Amino acid sequence: MPHPSLTRPALLGVLITSLFAPAALAAEAFGAPGGAPVRGPAAKSFVGTAVGSPSRVYFTGYRGIVSEVYYPALDTPESVDLQFLVGDAGKTFVDEEKRQAYSASQSDKRTMSWIASTGNDGHNWRISKRIFADPNRDALVQRVTFTALNGHTVGDFNLYVLFKPYLDNVGSGNSAQTVAAAGGYALAASRNSRASALMASLPWKTVNGQAMLSNGFVGQSDGWTDLIGSGDSKMDWTFSSATNGNVAQTGWLDLGNPAAASVSFDMVLGFGKSQGDAVNAAAASLGSDLSTAQQQYDNAWHAYAAGLATQGGLADDRYYLAAMTLKTMQDKSNGAMIAGIGTPWGETQSDANQGGYHLVWPRDLFKFANALYTAGDASTATTVVNYLFNTLQQNSDCGVAEYNAPGCAAGYSRVGRFPQNAWVSGWPYWQGTQMDEQAMPILLAWRLGPSVSNPLWPKIKQTADYIVATGPWSYQERWEENAGYSPSTLAAEIAGLAAAADIARANGDDASAGRYLSAADYWQQNVAAWTYTTSGGFGNGSYYIRINPANRAGSGTDRASFNPAAGPDTPQTLTVKNGGGSRDARRVVDGGFLELVRMGVKRADDPTIVNTMAVFDSVLGQYLALPGAPKLPANAWFRYNFDGYGEHNDGSDFDGAGVGRLWPIFTAERGMYEIARQGAGSAGQPYFATLKLLATPEGMLPEQVWSNSATLPDGWAVTTPAGYQPGSATKSMGPLNWAMGEYISLLASINAGRIVDVPQVACARYNNCRAAPKAGEVAVGINAAASTQWGQQVYVTGNARALGNWNTDLGIPLDAAAYPSWRNGVNLPASQQIAYKYYRKNADGSVSWENLSGNRSLQTPASGSLSLNDQVSW
């Protein structure tokens, strides 16, 4: 928006170098320590940071106002909200800005500066703000225009600012103070080694010689209570300080010429390790050329967006917003990326919930770092991989088990293990072990290629060794709630071990590679036997369950130890968390089985996948009749039946129990599955169109959206209460970075005509895709007719590296989908005579060779391809 030149008070002519005495206002506020602090709303209107700059400020917005601001790291919120209160000169009303009609949009579609507009036409005012972080300082800038409407002038209004510090991720124990400096005032706050300072380019109002600023305790002596809670719409309190409590700060701005129709000014929120540092940052920013700073901020984002892949011209504005949102979520200190910049249902969450979603989850991080790589940002993905292995990965053994680690400062740890989640520094938060989170860092390193993965090989080996020693059973699956054998977890483990084996061979460690592939193959051959019921109550009775809650049969790394103590047809009780109740495990389904396709472990047309898809759609799918939504049998899905992670049916916030709603990530996952099933990018288009409709007006994809009211199997009622629309965001989390990443992945898959991020090292090994031959190679199709007994697997090996060089753990497994024909493919050196032979692995891992006195031989052509059609006898 155009912004006129501003007259700055004398305060801004001098860079403040120290903290001055408190202003001569009234004394300490009453009512300490104030009400119990709560966090900011999780539904964000906007997010941003100064990309590629030293500024360590990350900001969010809610309903058109600045909400939580994070500094100096993405896991540390320093505020709850920063808004205006608007009253009339006659003091008959005061409007709270965030409760008014609003809009928020990017200032242009390739930057993360935002234009927020709020107003009340009935009360004849409007506020427009351009919001960005100062790229040169730890400060947040708002360039504000207040406009009087319908013939009114600014003299008809009183304008106040209300700021709620939440310093160092804690709402209690904050201290607030009015600080005088160089002829002006700042509202400063501090807690331990965190401080903030709020300044404006307009002077503060003076009444009877008193500057109208105040610091108070929330619910007792704060500005909102003074102006609105009291009912008199007057600012009566000017407390100079509020010490050690839940504080809020208020200032009454002098709007200048009362006859003007509008007034423009700047407001800056600075941060530092002390009040002096914060005041210095705010003053320096406010005294600088903010138009130039704004342009610098935008130019950096323009350059970032220009470097992204266009996906064959399909990249739309939401694609760029998704990528820039994800880039915003990367901490500048070490490359970590958080799952979401907020706390679900924050308005009813206290200091006790320190982590929220502003933590690092290796699984979420894999999903959206992978998406950024797909979008062409290899640099961020590389930084993430190095963060994962050099900062987050554990390097010691401590503790007996998860949540049983006395004497362990950082909690439970194992060499090579990734914690369930952690602070940006790498310090663990929760203590659980999720085996998909062990495999996914390996997969990301593999996808980035040898230049990234080879230097990390010693650490990758530690994690792969940990997977073989601990899996396939997982302490928690991807929903972080239950232990056992999970299809989604198994998919990641299998693909991760296949990737680790490839990296091992590139680093000359065939012994480790063989060990990883031996485990991965066995798990891949048994994923259905462990997690696919044939006695279920849905569909035709055969489908993947969410999780088989059985324990491992043993603790070793022999094949018998990998097996579950009970199969998926055994009646077992699954205790569904968040109030979901105790259920027969066969009655609980989710979309985790789709990871078997996404990870290359199963084909999209595998009968077990097809059967489960019918159950997934019928039990968990809904059709949301959104404007312009393509016609599909279902276009949105619940996480699983009996899910209690969501608002209660009356709309009240989740409080440890509730009712889960629909997750947009499943619309994306379902679309990518259809692309794989039909072999065409166009198959994903209806799901992509629906995904766009599940975003907020600003373009943010939330964790959950409201569903149609319905009763799921076994009487599980899901209600959308009055005032909420199906398909609109719930209050859980928005944006969810995982969901933003899936937008990128689905669009790229539509362009590619295939799922773009399937690990080829896994899907080629298990005959679910073909790797293109490299220079000097030819494709060889393998078709061997062989009879086997249940539990036996046919392999081929030979004197070529791709065939394992006669190592029976490195040989190629053949696929029995067309039994008795066993099939796969391999790329071999061109123009070479190659010896090979078939063998079978028994259920216990022992090997028996085909009944030939010598070896088979093949001559590869100089170019093109070759097909083998062999008859095998034992």
Automatic annotation (TrEMBL):
Sorted keywords for this record are: Hydrolase, Signal
Judging by the UniProt lineage, the source's domain of life is Bacteria
- Per the UniProt entry, the signal peptide is 1-26
InterPro entries, sorted: 6-hairpin_glycosidase_sf (IPR008928), 6hp_glycosidase-like_sf (IPR012341), Carb-bd-like_fold (IPR013784), CBM20 (IPR002044), Gal_mutarotase_sf_dom (IPR011013), GH-type_carb-bd (IPR014718), GH15-like (IPR011613), Glucodextranase_N (IPR015220)
User: Which CDD domains does the record cross-reference, listed alphabetically?
Assistant: CBM20_alpha_amylase (cd05808), GH15_N (cd07430)
Q: Name one GO molecular function term.
A: hydrolase activity
Name of the protein in its database record: Glycoside hydrolase family 15 protein
Organism (species): Chromobacterium indicum
> Which classification does the entry list for the species?
Bacteria, Pseudomonadati, Pseudomonadota, Betaproteobacteria, Neisseriales
